[in-house]
């Protein structure tokens, strides 16, 4: 009888040890798969370009832009584009004198996408900025695979550089900073002023007394 009880107690103890071991192992496995921050990361659909909106107006960015820095930014474009007069088209069109030119046409007969050909308008500074921020958003269906430049300063530098390459379109005037709000009147500044109604009454001449008959 004692041996039977000892056997049962042994199996119960063994089962408890196994359960404890499984619990610890399961906890370690779950902990190894838990992220530091819950949820799923959201990646930009444009491959890193965020739209590049700036609180500084575009004319002000252009006024402060640096042509040499723009030339350095153009190095990112040089694999597909040339920027010299009479330069050949490559994967992308030659960009000499592109600022102010018609969108999606010309450029030595380059085969533009239907999306860009149908956009209309010209390459104004605003259109250039929007295109460089996200070609796909500017012309959905464009063949250009470049995600865009997220930095407004980089875009402005590149635009002024391209403008010097055969376009020389006058830059827009920089916008003035908003004027400071007028100072609020100090407390009690109007205490010395008479109420309008009272002032009018005091200024009015007294009516002459009715003559006795």
Report what the structure shows.
The chain has helices at residues 2-33, 58-63, 67-74, 114-117, 125-133, 135-138, 152-164, 196-203. It has 213 residues and is mainly alpha-helical. Mean pLDDT is 77; it is low at 29-50 and 188-213.
Uncertain segments are 29-50, 188-213
What overall form do the CA principal axes indicate?
A: elongated
List the secondary-structure elements in sequence, H or E: HHHHHHHH
Global mean pLDDT: 77
User: What is the straight-line distance between the termini?
Assistant: 145 Å
Q: Helical residue percent? A: 25-40%
Beta content: under 5%
The Cα radius of gyration reads 38 Å
Number of helices: 8
Largest sheet: none
Briefly summarize what is shown.
The chain has 213 residues and is mainly alpha-helical. It is built from 8 helices and no strands.
Task: From the structure above, extract its key features.
disordered C terminus, 8 helices, single chain, 39% helix, elongated, 213 residues, mainly alpha
Helices and strands in order:
Elements: H1 2-33, H2 58-63, H3 67-74, H4 114-117, H5 125-133, H6 135-138, H7 152-164, H8 196-203
Helix pairs in contact: 3-7, 5-7
């Amino acid at each position: 009888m004692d041996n039977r009880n000892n056997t049962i107690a042994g199996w119960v103890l063994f089962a408890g040890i196994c359960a404890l071991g499984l619990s610890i192992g399961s906890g370690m496995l779950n902990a190894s798969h838990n992220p530091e921050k819950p949820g799923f990361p959201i990646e930009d659909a444009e491959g890193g370009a965020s739209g590049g909106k700036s609180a500084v107006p575009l004319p002000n960015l252009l006024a402060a832009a640096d042509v040499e820095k723009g030339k350095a930014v153009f190095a990112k474009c040089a694999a597909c584009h040339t920027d010299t007069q009479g330069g050949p088209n490559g994967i992308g069109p030659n960009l000499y004198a592109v600022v102010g030119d018609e969108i999606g046409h010309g450029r030595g007969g380059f085969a533009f996408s239907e999306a860009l050909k149908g956009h209309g308008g010209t390459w104004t500074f605003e259109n250039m900025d929007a295109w460089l921020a996200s070609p796909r958003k500017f012309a959905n269906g464009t063949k250009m695979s470049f995600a865009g430049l997220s930095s407004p300063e980089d875009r402005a530098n590149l635009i002024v550089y391209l403008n010097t390459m055969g376009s020389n379109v006058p830059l827009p005037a920089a916008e003035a900073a908003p004027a400071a709000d007028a100072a609020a009147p100090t407390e009690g500044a109007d205490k010395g002023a008479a109420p309008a109604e009272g002032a009018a009454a005091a200024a009015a001449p007294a009516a002459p007394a009715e003559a006795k008959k």
